[in-house]
Write a structure and sequence with these properties.
The complex is a heterodimer.
Chain A (H helix, E strand, L loop, with lengths): L2 H30 L7 H21 L6 H26 L4 H23 L15 E2 L9 H4 L2 E2 L1 H19 L1 H11 L1 H6 L4 H28 L10 H11 L4 H20 L11 H20 L18
Antiparallel strand pairs in A: 1-2
Chain B lengths: L1 H32 L4 H13 L2 H26 L7 H18 L6 H30 L3 H24 L31 H18 L1 H11 L1 H6 L4 H28 L11 H11 L4 H25 L5 H14 L1 H20 L1
Helix pairs in contact in B: 1-13, 2-12, 3-7, 3-10, 3-11, 3-12, 4-5, 4-6, 4-10, 4-11, 5-6, 5-10, 7-8, 7-10, 7-12, 8-10, 11-12, 12-13, 13-14
Classes of the chains: A mainly alpha, B mainly alpha.
């Protein structure tokens, strides 16, 4: 196999993985605090929409290379606002978390398209953006394969990889991370020790909105350039799968996200390989999903979800 | 405690009704913010659904798969599982019905062929969901992740089967399916709306759901496993077997929805570019219906009316049809977060109490 292709494949893999990395990291924050987040899909939609609109207006205002960053900031803000709906319903009003997550998906699908049509006079799609450009890191980008593959990527990809490490550190090496996890494992014990359970959960859910928002923004600002009804189409659910696959651990989720990114990248390159000519394309598309199930069956076994996941915290029920 | 129960009992219909009203209200506010006339929009919506026999028939057609996928998700929910995979199960059901309906046509009389195609759809949908149930029972693998994976696999598998074995030359769809669930005797009454027997199947499925879950020993076990698998196991129930069985039945419902769509509505199967989304509507319907079969039917009627009518809303009042998702989302939100509804209703409760005191 050609090494140039290998480098390009790695690069495309990372492009497709980036959004999944952000969103699954977001999911980890929410679920580690004990709140199920089926709403990642919707939160990504909010982010993708906000990035497309924010980025577009910043571009119109002549902000040039900074415009995509305005898009990312808008996505963070709108993602957090969207996640608050989930937080209020599931934490304050103790609604079923699966249900309020589903609500996010519905509201996001409806309201983003509604607003796109309002803002852009009936068009179902935002105008095409310039988005991010790839940034080659001097020196490192000259390494064969890896240089082409990793060190010549979008800024969001670098940010995602850095965040994986930072969030791993936050979750497992800081008091904040300990409290967040405690609230998801044994809320009443955490409460006894003076941790404000509901506040920690609000923070967890809002961080998930923030990160899933960036994830959605990544898609409009790097791959599609616009926001339409099919911009996200299932990525949020794949991010949930990546989070579970990665056992609610940032490093695991990163690995799983790259795995799914690879599956999308393979589609672009599959025609280039001689051996794949005789295999129906559908079976090649299926590989990552079948592999995921096989890996789960053979290796991972029992899932290790946070113990209090899905249970609203009620101090009167010890 | 009994007082608490009483409030719950009287609330059981008030809360959903108020939640629906509040959902419409949120929609109206959003329309006002967007500069639209909510009254014109809502009346255009209902006029679209109830304005002509054709549209009314088509709205019923729209409700049918919603009922079945809603039942599928609700049944799994009752047994303690979240079936995100109804979408894949619908596709597998469609494919099974298409294969039987096309490949066995001509060899069998239609009164054998059609039921056979429907049964194939149900069984294959059930087996597809059963994979997730089996993996959960045997290996403890989270059904959320397996059903998501199975959705994608179903999409590609269905496309492969349609493209390789059933393709209509030069088209991106299967040959026409001779087996038909259409209710042709109603065509003239409903101005050629695509009504089909799937609706009757859906109502039968809801009846089965109710009787099985609340009137049989097996159903009792299933609910027990859904409420507390550890307690059920301690009581000597086979949790794993119940999990597989529950997923199978759930998948049968979804598979039947697929049969209705290809045998009753389209009469061919398309190659899908992306997931058709039946399963996600099913989740919403199941939640709107509080995972009770009667509730699911009512929810499917509401959901079908709103989505079918939303097209009229955009013609009649120029409102983007996506608005309806905001309405549906808000309704589910208020049903889920009943605390908010109770908080809104509180002043009325106080009034009633005061009257009693006086």
């Amino acid at each position: 196999m050609d090494f140039v292709i290998l480098g390009q494949l790695l690069n495309t893999t990372l492009v497709f993985s980036t959004a999944l990395i952000f969103a699954s990291l977001g999911g980890i924050f929410s679920e580690r605090s004990g709140v199920v987040n089926i709403g990642l899909e919707g939160l990504m939609m909010f982010g993708a929409f906000a990035a497309a609109v924010g980025g577009y207006y910043a571009q119109e205002a002549g902000m040039g290379a900074w415009a995509p960053w305005v898009g990312v900031l808008s996505a963070m803000a709108v993602g957090v606002i969207g996640s608050l709906i989930h937080a209020v319903a599931s934490i304050t009003f103790k609604a079923d978390q699966t249900i309020s997550g589903t609500v996010i998906n519905f509201l996001a699908a409806g309201s983003t398209l509604y607003m796109v049509k309002l803002i852009f006079e009936g068009s179902g799609e935002t105008p095409l953006l310039d988005g991010f450009n790839k940034v080659a890191i001097p020196g490192l980008s000259k390494i064969p394969v890896i240089g082409e593959g990793i060190f010549n990527s979008y800024p969001t990809t670098y940010l995602a990889i850095i965040l994986v490490i930072v969030i791993y550190f936050i979750l497992f090496k800081t008091p904040f991370g300990l409290r967040l996890r405690a609230v998801g494992e044994h809320p009443s014990a955490a409460d006894t020790l003076g941790v404000n359970v509901n506040r920690m959960r609000y923070i967890g859910v809002m961080l998930s909105g923030l990160l899933a928002g960036i994830g959605g923004a990544t898609i409009t600002l790097t791959t599609t350039g616009t926001f339409a009804h099919n911009t996200i189409s299932g990525q949020g659910f794949i991010a949930i799968a990546a989070m579970i696959f990665g056992k609610w651990n940032p490093l695991g989720a990163f690995g799983a996200a790259v795995f799914f990114g690879l599956s999308q990248a393979i589609r672009n390159y599959v025609q280039l390989f001689e051996w794949s000519k005789n295999i129906p394309q559908e079976f090649i598309f299926m590989i990552p999903y079948v592999l995921t199930i096989i890996v789960l069956v053979s290796a991972v076994g029992r899932s290790s979800a946070p113990k209090a996941l899905g249970e609203p915290y009620d101090p009167s029920k010890r | 405690m009994s007082k608490f129960k009483k409030i719950f009992a009287t609330d059981s219909y008030i809360v959903p009704l108020v939640a629906i009203l509040m959902g419409f209200l949120v929609g109206a506010v959003v329309m006002l913010i967007g500069g639209y006339d909510p009254i014109a929009a809502y009346s255009a919506l209902f006029k679209r659904v109830f304005g002509s026999p054709y549209d009314f028939g088509e709205a019923i057609r729209e409700m049918t798969p919603l009922m079945l996928t809603g039942l599928a998700v609700a049944f799994a929910f009752r047994s303690g599982m979240f079936n995100i995979g109804a979408d894949g199960q619908v596709m597998i059901g469609m494919t099974a019905a298409s294969v039987v309906g096309i490949k066995l046509a001509g060899t069998l009389p239609s009164f054998v062929l059609v039921p056979l195609a429907v049964i194939a759809a149900g069984v294959c949908g059930g087996l597809w969901a059963g994979i997730a149930g089996f993996l959960k029972a045997k290996r403890g693998i989270n059904e959320v992740i397996t059903t998501i994976m199975l959705n994608w696999i179903a999409l590609f598998l269905s496309n492969y089967i349609v493209r390789t074995f059933l393709l209509l030359q030069g088209q991106n769809r299967s040959e026409d399916i001779p087996a038909s669930l259409s209710m042709s005797f109603l065509f003239s009454t409903f101005d050629n709306a695509r009504l089909h027997w799937g609706t009757v199947i859906a109502l039968a499925a809801a009846t089965f759901f109710y009787i099985y879950l609340w009137k049989t020993k097996q159903g009792y076990e299933m609910r027990a496993v859904g409420l507390n698998p550890h307690a059920a196991e301690y009581a000597g129930m086979n949790v794993g077997r119940n999990v597989v069985k529950a997923m199978f039945i759930s998948g049968v419902f979804a598979g039947l929805a697929g049969a209705g769509e290809v045998l009753g509505v389209f009469h061919y199967q398309s190659v899908f570019a992306a997931s058709p989304g039946y399963g996600f509507d099913g989740i919403a319907v199941a939640l709107l219906g509080l995972t009770h079969p009667l509730g699911v039917i009512l929810a499917a009627i509401l959901y079908g009316t709103l989505t079918y009518g939303s097209a009229g809303m955009s013609f009649g009042a120029d409102v983007p049809p996506e608005l309806i998702r905001i309405v549906i989302g808000s309704i589910i939100f208020f049903i889920a977060a009943q605390g908010i509804v109770r908080w809104v209703l509180k002043p009325f409760y106080f009034k009633r109490k005061k009257e009693k005191v006086l």
